[in-house]
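tool=predict chain=A
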Amino acid sequence: MEEVEIPNENLLCALNRDEVEVRLTGNKSPRGRHLGVVTKIIARKKETFVGVVEKTGEIRPDDWRCYTNFIIETGKAQLNDKVLFKMRKWDNQNLLPKADILEVIGRAGEHNTEMRAVALARGFSSSFPDTVEREAENIKKREKEIFEAEIPKRRDFRNVLTFTIDPADAKDFDDALSFKKLQNGNYEVGVHIADVSFFVRENTALDNEARGRGFSVYLVDRTIPMLPEVLSNDLCSLNPNEDKFAFSSVFEIDENAKVLSRWFGRTIIRSQKRWTYEEAQKTINENETLSILNRLAKIMQAKNSAGGAIDFATDEVKFELDSKGKPIRVYKKPHLETHKLIEEWMLLANREVAEFLNKVREKSPKRAPVLYRIHDLPDQEKIAELALFVKALGHHLPLGGKKITGKDLQQLFKKIEGEAEEALIKKTALRTMSKAIYSTKNIGHFGLAMNFYTHFTSPIRRYADLMIHRMLAGHLHNEKIAENEWSDYERLAEHITEKEIGAAEAERESIKMKQVEYMSERIGKEFSGTISGVTEWGIYIEEDETKAEGMAALRNLGDDFYTLNEKQYCVVGTRTRKKYSLGDRVKFKIIGADIERKTLDYKVVNS
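tool=predict ok
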C-alpha cells in the first residue's frame, strides 16, 4: 500500500492513527509521495491522552504527533501539572478541541509523574478497580481450602527437583523447570507454568480487567502488572519453598535432545531453588542438573538454527537509579548462557502445545480456534533495501532473486559477529521483519522457523497465554469452554496484539527518558559511538555503553557543506569529500538535551 502525505491543514481534525477516508489531490510532495485530503474520520484510534497544563488553560499533549493543544472544559489542574485527559467530539478544524481532565498525574518533570504518564498514555494504569482487588483478595483468603480440595486432582511433582531462573529484580515467577534422570538413561524435564487460569475464571472482574490490559508492562523502575499483586506476586507466582499450582508440559528426552514423549496437565509443584540468571551462570558448568539442561538446550538451539531460526538477541540496557529516580549508572546487561537455556525450554513448550492444539483442532468437528503466534515473511522491498544497506557497510546478504530465508540472515549474522556494526545491522534487519502477532489463522513463525507456535509460558504477564491454558484445559479435562470465549477470538487476537505494541512502546519510552536524563548531566563531555542513521538534516549516533542515541546536525560538522547520499548511506562534504557513513565509529560530545522531548544533540569532535 502506497503512503499518502496529508498536510496539517488537510487533516479535517484527524489525529495520528485514526481511520480515515482520503481523496488524492493529484499532486506530490517534495519527497515524491502522493498528497491527499481527509474527507471523513471513520474511527478515532484513541480519545485519551497525556499532556501538560499550560497557563492559557490549555493542555499540550506529550505526543508530538498530536499536533494540536486542547482546551480544558472540565476538571481542575494547576499550571505545569501533567494530566490524563479525554477529548470531546472535534469536527471544527478552526477551533481547538475540548477536553475533560480525568486525572492529575503529578507535577511535570518529576520521576514518578513521568513514569506513570508513560504507561497511562498507552492505557496501562498502576491501580486496579476496587471490585478487581476485592475479588483477588477473596481468592487469597480461601487459599487453604482451595488447595486442600484441589491437590488430590493433580499430578504431584513436589518431590521432583524443581527450580526457577529469573532476573534478580523479578517478583512474579511464572515458569519453573523440573529435572529427573530416568532408569532407561533418558531425562524427564518438566516445564511448569503458573496455573493462572485456575484462579482467574472467565467473565469475572479479574478476567475482564486482565483482558483489557493484555500485558504486564516493565518500565525502567517498576512493573505495571496485568493482575493484582496478590495473584501475580503471591498466589500464582511459583515462589521457592511453597506449594504451587502449575500447568505443566513434561517431556521425556534422550541424550540428543529428541522428544520421545510428552504430557500436558495440571500439577502441584514446590520449587526448591530460586536462581538469578547471574547466579546460575556462575555454576552452570559445575552443577550437574544445570549442565545437562544447558547441553540439551544448546542441541535444541542448533536444531532450530539449522531449520532457519534467527537469533536477534542483543545486550539489554539497565539503569541504577537513586532514591529520587535519577539515573546514576547506565550499563549493558549481557545475554548469558542461562538466558538461552531458559528460552530454549520455553520455546519447546510453546511449540509442543501449539502442535498438540493444532492436531486437536484438525480432528474437532467444530474446528475450535487456536490462538497462534505467527510471524509472516519479510516484505521483499524492505529486504532489498536491507541488502543495499548491508552492502554499503561492506557486507553481503545473498538473495539472487529468491525470497529470503532465515538461513540467509544467519549467514550474514555469523559474518558480522564481533564487528562494530553487528548491533546496527541486527537492529536494521529486525526493522525489516514483519511484526509477530496473535491470530487464529496459522501461517507459521518465520523468525523461529516453526510451523506451529503459540504462547503458553507466561500467563501472569500475557493474556494470550491465559487463553491458551483455558483451551488446553478444555481439551484435557473436559472443562466447558464458554461460547463467548471463542466467538470473538479474532477480535481478541487483534486487541492483545495492539496492547503488546503499546506495552513495548511504553517500555522503550521509559528507557529513552532515562538515557536522555543521564546524558543531560554530562553536557560538554566526550563519548565514543557508532553512526546509526543518516538524514538530510543530520547524523544519528548511538553511544557505546548507554546506547543513548542523539543527533549531530549537519551544520555542526565543520567548515564544509554536507549533503546526503541516500544510496551510499552517508553524508558527504561538497568541498573536502569527507564522508560520514552508517556504521562509522566517531567521537562526539553532548551539546544539548531536551528531557521533555527525549532528544539529545551531539557534535562530532573527530572520527
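Residues 51-108 form one domain. The chain has five domains: 4-43, 51-108, 130-375+438-512, 380-433, 522-606.
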